[in-house]
Amino acid sequence: MSKKNEIKKWFNYFFYVWCTLALLFAVLLDLICGTVYDPKKSNFDVAIIEQSIYFSVWVAIMTSFFGLINWIHIHNKSMAKWMVGKNAHTSITTLNIVIFILFNVTFIVQKGDIIGFDTWYGKTKSIIEHILTPIIVLAFYFIYQNEKVEDKLFIKKYCWFNLIFVGIYSFYIILRMSMLLKLNIETNETLPLIPYPQIDPTIVGYPIFIAGTLAGNFGTVFISIFFNKMSNIKYVAIQKNLSANKTNKNIN
């Protein structure tokens, strides 16, 4: 094995280890340190609830699970293709880029403190979750993913994968909000009605809340279609290059 291929192999391995352990570490760090250092979260149950309302935490757990499955697959090749193939990679890449966009746009436009960016452990978690991991996931997808899924087939069968995940999260948030409103439970900074004030219906109104929720759900569909298409273009270009090199060798 050439040195280049060996480096590529080890980076491939590192990627799945990072997804598995780094994101799990980030979530647990914020959960434990928040309970220990933040008086508002001195109750461990409150800390867990506070973690569970953020989409980034759901994506971190999903990405960690994805990394673990592929890590195991490297050693024994026992996982089903739908769990380790290109469509799974496209889905995870889409979710992480959505998190990257939401966080960094908020970071740029929001005035005042950014949620989760007010303590050293919060900053560590945010950097791992919202910046480093999305960049690593996107780079890995376009460098290592050498499988082609036809655009029409992807649109017909696979682009809606993330709707299941995002839909479950949205249902959880809406159900929680409905229960809080029905029971007239007073919310605060630690336990807000909606984790993201930009779409809090009590602040911006229900039309914006509904529009924002639908945009968040179906936005993952269009982003995944775009990534699959770009990956296919890269795949075709590589194949043409390999074919041209092979032809030149035969001529020589």
UniProtKB/TrEMBL annotation:
Transmembrane stretches, start-end: 12-32, 52-72, 92-110, 130-146, 158-183, 203-227
Keyword annotations from UniProtKB, A to Z: Membrane, Transmembrane, Transmembrane helix
Signal sequence region: none
Annotated protein name in UniProt: Transmembrane protein
